[in-house]
Design a protein that fits this description.
alpha/beta, 6 strands, binds zinc ion
Length: 193
Amino acid sequence: MKTVILGTAHGINVPGKCSPDGRLREWLYSRQVCLMVRDSLRQRGVKCIIDIEAEREPSLAARIAMVNRLVAQHRDCIYVSIHNNAAGSDGCWHGARGFAAFVAPNASPQSRRLAAIFHHSAVGAGLQGNRCYPPSGYYVQSLAVCRDTACPAVLTENLFQDNRDDVDFLLSPSGRQSIVDLHVNAIIEYLGL
Ligand SMILES: [Zn+2]
């Protein structure tokens, strides 16, 4: 039986990861979504753990080492790192909207299949925003949590924390639920349940 490892985004100690008005804080949003996804997966009988629930991220290297210890312990795992995107780092609002899934350049076919499922699920849920996707539907970028983790791994960017409309949506109860549902549905489809 597979184990799903959910990765929280950053930590309270990482600066700049919030909406320009401070309403959405990425470290907190990710932890809230991870808890909801974990509960929902467990209700469906799926083994699910969160890598770092605490507010702080010790370091990115420590996070990856922790994930790889979990992978060694539980063997058959997938890793999903849950983030919010940003179009700028200038503390201003921007126009880009929508969901995106990422894998590393060294991604396995399993990672790519999981990312493609996330993409299709997001488009099906109307979460594509104004994004223009590559033909595969997912993006390839050398992100450490995908590149250096020892199991199929995808990073999800759940809309833009520096777009006003995306932030309104993300913070609404129905918007938050649709982000949770997207992850649960994609993971369930990947697992063939
Ligand atoms: Zn992030």
